[in-house]
Specification:
The protein is α/β, with parallel strands linked by helices and 529 residues long. The chain is 35% helix and 14% strand. A 10-stranded mixed beta sheet has the order 7-6-5-4-8-1-9-10-2-11, sandwiched between helices. A 4-stranded antiparallel beta sheet has the order 13-14-15-16, covered by helices on one side. Bound molecules: 2-deoxy-6-O-sulfo-2-(sulfoamino)-alpha-D-glucopyranose and calcium ion. Residues 37-38, 76-77, 98, 127, 144, 197-199, 361, 444-445 line the site of 2-deoxy-6-O-sulfo-2-(sulfoamino)-alpha-D-glucopyranose (SGN). InterPro entries: Alkaline_phosphatase_core_sf, Phosphodiest/P_Trfase, SGSH_C, Sulfatase_CS.
């Protein structure tokens, strides 16, 4: 007893010598949930440094765990966010596409954390069409939001904040942490970047460096979509569907001179201040002049490659800002001695095609958009520098966070807590397949409705609605997913098993053909309204 007391006295003495606020070890862990929009795992150097170095995001994996097999249940923005908040698949939370409004009678994990005594805040992109529930404070972008001088929706009205969106989102989150955090309470901070969403407008400090870079071409840039009808009819091909003005930033007047009628104008230019515009012009005008000189000499292959490089330069430059700002956030948490008792997640609302299959955008159950980056740091719980290849999903966050907070987990949540994986108790984890269902069709990019399951080895997908086509992939032998083996006799038995498993999983998660049809009707209704 005497010894225990003296240790306590020493501890108190040490803490009173240090004037920084100390973490209360008895307090429940804080949760910082960092999510970017459309951030492909291929563009995080903890996964691969072929395209970009992201030292700050990598810090989370170096000090924690890198998940190599994390996926989403429905690869599109607002539905992914609804899955994260409710811990339920799209067909049960009702937010199946970007069109419909989120049903706010859903119970979300932030509401439950708030009830359990957490202070809660959200900054950045939500994309729900309505305000978030369960937050003591929020400042969110309307819809997709803007890169330059963006408007924010706040509890006291709308406001335009001058500057670059990724910096501003961080400023808002840090301002809350510095000035309104209640140190006696654990907190949930949802810090949600708009970047690197289309149309990929970088911060001016990254213009010069990135526009000079040349990136390696993905092996499937010239995919011919053989045996994959839904892939063939999708409208997200870099050559055919990426806009020279809107996406590649060529002035429409110049395109007119070249007899190119490309539809959409550059979206953010009109938002820029005179100073921002002149800094932009100084770097982008020479690119435009060069394109003007070369365009008529380019064949289709050269034009595809030119567009790919332009795409990568801008997309990756927006990520450089995300990385800078994640660094600011991590530094702040370290400086304030908050890191020790904080779980930090870095993820994206889905993956993205960076030229694989000739594409940009997402939506498909093929790897690059199905998989999503996931890095988690939790000092003293997660062994630093570990890699986890179990199949986890965005569906799992709600239950994980509720368990961390010691809060009650509603029976109807459909994920699995990641705690056994995070804390090295893998024997408690027994998931052998994950379910996926994409709905938004007919719509932009023309990706047909489909559902399917993935195991570590195989993937089976059923495209339906105005098509009835099955696809089957051997993930280990064909990681690029270019060979649809659905009619290959060697896999006949495996395909029967996978179809069986798919039916079981649909039943387990309460999805059905009846619901598929219900959502088709609802969607048609919404579109004609
Ligand atoms: C916008 C983009 C699309 C993108 C969707 C959904 N077009 O509509 O390319 O697929 O968002 O993205 S744009 O012309 O407006 O840039 S999501 O991340 O919000 O789901
Ligand atoms: Ca997105």
């Amino acid at each position: 007893m005497k010894r225990a007391l003296s240790i306590l006295t020493i501890a108190l003495l040490i803490s009173s010598c240090n004037n920084k606020p100390q973490t209360n070890k008895l307090q429940k862990p804080n949760i910082v949930f960092i999510m970017s929009d459309d951030h492909a795992y291929q563009a995080i150097s903890a996964y691969s440094d072929k395209l970009i170095k992201t030292p700050n995001i990598d810090r989370i994996a170096n000090e924690g765990m890198l998940f190599t097999n994390a996926s989403v249940t429905n690869s599109i923005c607002a539905p992914s966010r609804a899955v994260i908040l409710t811990g339920k698949h799209s067909h049960l939370n009702g937010k199946i596409d970007n069109l419909s409004k989120f049903d706010t009678t859903n119970v979300t994990f932030p509401q439950l954390l708030q009830k359990a005594g957490y202070q809660t805040a959200m900054f950045g992109k939500l994309h729900f069409g309505n305000k978030p529930k369960g937050f003591d404070e929020f400042k969110i972008l309307p819809g997709q939001g803007s890169y330059y001088n963006p408007k924010f929706i706040t509890q006291t009205g709308d406001t335009v904040i001058n500057g670059y969106v990724t910096d501003i989102t961080t400023d808002l989150a840090l301002d809350w942490l510095k000035n309104r955090r209640i140190s006696e309470k654990p907190f949930l901070l949802m810090y949600l970047h708009k970047a690197p969403h289309r149309a990929w407008y970088p911060h001016e400090k990254h213009y010069k460096k990135f526009t000079k870079k040349t990136f390696p071409l993905p092996e499937t840039l010239f995919d011919n979509y053989k045996g994959r009808l839904a892939a063939k009819t999708a409208e997200m091909n870099i050559l055919k569907h990426m806009h020279l003005a809107y996406d590649n930033k060529i002035d429409k007047e110049i395109l007119k001179e070249l007899n190119i009628y490309d539809g959409m104008a550059r979206s953010e230019i009109k938002r820029m201040t005179t100073q921002q515009r002149s800094s932009w012009d100084s770097v982008y005008n020479p690119i435009i002049s060069d394109f003007k000189k070369r365009y008529h000499k380019m064949n289709e292959k050269e034009l595809t490659e030119w567009k790919y490089q332009r795409y990568m330069q801008d997309y990756l430059a927006t990520i450089a800002s995300v990385d800078d700002n994640v660094g600011r956030m991590l530094d702040y948490l370290d400086q304030e001695n908050l890191s020790d008792n904080t779980l930090i997640v870095y993820t994206s609302d889905q993956g993205f095609y960076l030229g694989e299959h000739g594409w940009f955008d997402k939506r498909f159950m093929y790897n690059e958009s199905f998989k999503t980056p996931l890095l988690i740091k939790w000092p003293n719980k997660v062994t630093p520098g570990t890699t986890e290849d179990e199949m986890v999903q965005n569906l799992d966050f709600a239950q994980t966070f509720l368990e961390i907070a010691g809060a009650h987990v509603p029976e109807d949540m459909q994920g699995e807590s990641l705690i056994p994986l995070l804390t090295g108790n893998k024997e408690k984890w027994n998931r052998d397949a994950v379910y996926y269902h994409y709905y938004e069709y007919p719509a932009e990019h023309a990706v047909k409705r489909h559902y399917g399951i993935a195991t570590k080895k195989y993937k089976i997908i059923h495209f339906y609605h105005d098509i009835d086509q099955w696809e089957f992939y051997d993930r280990s032998k064909d990681p690029q997913e270019i060979y649809n083996f659905i009619d290959n006799k060697d896999y006949a038995d495996t395909i029967v098993e996978m179809k069986q498993k798919l039916e079981e999983i649909r039943a387990k998660y309460k999805d059905s053909e009846k619901l598929d049809n219900y959502y088709i009707e609802l969607y048609n209704d919404l579109k004609t309204r």
